[in-house]
Amino acid sequence: MDDSGKHSTEEMDFIPDDFPTAPGPALVLLLGAVVVGALTGLAGIAFLFMLREGDSLRGTLTAALQTWPPFFGWLALSALASGAVCTAAWMVEKFAPTARGSGVPYVEKILRGGGQPRHAWVLPVKFVGGWLALSAGLVLGREGPLVQMGAVIGEKVGRRFSGLKGAWKSLMAAGAGAGLASAFNAPVGGTIFILEEVFRKVTPLTFILTATAASVSIYIQRAVFHMPQDYAVSVIPEAPPQAVWVFFLFGTAVGILGVLYNRLLLSLQASFAKLSKIPVPLRAAIIGFLMGSIAWFAPRWVGGGDNITQSILASRSEIWLLLGVASLRFFLGPLSYSAGTPGGLFAPIIALGAIVGAATGSLNHELLPELVPSPLAFAVAGMAAFFTATIRAPITGIVICLEMTGCYSLFFPMLTTCLGAYMIPTLLKDQPIYDALAAQKN
């Protein structure tokens, strides 16, 4: 499609459930999924590499500025973060408004048939803007940019098959799944995300194309670039079956936190929308300045949260310290999302779940050592539970967290925890965050 959006309603709304009956078009779609997966995997590797370099640069700058007089060092770091976030928000406003935030609600809208894709400049804005925002320390995730970048790649490749109706939308879905898979090195999770969250149904065409693209993407990551799973986790003792009620109760508590998190995020979005007289880049600059100030005093507490999660999974931390970090990031995540830059929700939510889980696990380990042999079991379960409470995609959350940690022995405790985390928001009639964001925008 050209970016004028001129396509017939029939073509725009058409997405088949099954492969074409003729073998030729079916093979073309499979080949397209392979190409989409390869291109998305390469884009994901480049983006993840740049993010690592950005985090390293922020750490190096912080350490260097610590040698300056305190006031000037703080001011310099905060100003640099402010400038980076302001630039990212300006890029979105100027070149690609649909690149704002995670991009997942926009991708879902297109794939479900409501709207026409407008992807001019989205790919470079998502890449560069996302790198600037996350490198500056915003509490945002890498998966949002990669999902939308994969969707753009899939749509562009699908347009090459102009004689095959529905190809662009089918491959757009495959690219989005491959993008999520690349973000977390989780091919199964990326595939399930498209089926459970985006379409909320399983069809042969969507499953095969998304699984193909995700598999190719991760093959490139693992076989060519030798990227390991996201987190290195020591062997966690298996919790006894009698502990199931402890995990379930923990899940209900996380469910309440998820509802509060969603409502805080939506409230901040609505509040910032009312500040229409203040340019978005200026608002972003203020948020960036605040993040730079926090990074000056607590450099490990900002950013997507991978370093925090890995630290928790590698060692045991003090309960009060964990609760302090959780309280701060509980507010910083929604505030960062309100900056209007590219950036996702998944990674900060998963990190927050790990923090809350580690604190809860440490307390339960002291009180019920026979039922909770290791606090880390709650940290891993908390990752999936907070994802479930906010996104409302429990299977995706469980699978992604299992793929990232390799803790497959915790499947049953995670399932039980996610049951509680799903039940509470459902009973409270709290919308999944992506549905709520889409409704708020409309």
Explain what this protein looks like in three dimensions.
This protein is mostly helical. The chain is built from 18 helices and no strands. It has helices at residues 9-13, 23-65, 70-95, 104-111, 122-135, 143-158, 167-184, 187-199, 204-224, 244-274, 280-297, 306-314, 319-337, 346-367, 376-391, 394-405, 411-427, 433-441. 54% of the residues are buried. Residues 1-13 have low confidence and may be disordered.
Strand and helix map with partners:
Blueprint: H1 9-13, H2 23-65, H3 70-95, H4 104-111, H5 122-135, H6 143-158, H7 167-184, H8 187-199, H9 204-224, H10 244-274, H11 280-297, H12 306-314, H13 319-337, H14 346-367, H15 376-391, H16 394-405, H17 411-427, H18 433-441
Helix pairs in contact: 2-5, 2-6, 2-7, 2-9, 3-5, 3-11, 4-18, 5-6, 6-7, 7-8, 7-9, 8-9, 8-16, 10-13, 10-15, 10-17, 12-14, 13-14, 14-15, 15-16, 15-17
Tag the structure with descriptive keywords:
disordered N terminus; 442 residues; mainly alpha
Question: Which runs of at least 5 residues are low in confidence (pLDDT < 50)?
Answer: 1-13
Helix content: over 70%
Oligomeric state:
single chain
* Beta fraction: under 5%
What general form does the structure show?
globular
Number of helices: 18
Sketch the topology as an H/E string, one letter per element.
HHHHHHHHHHHHHHHHHH
Task: Compute the CA-based radius of gyration.
Answer: 21 Å
SS class:
mainly alpha
Largest sheet descriptor: none
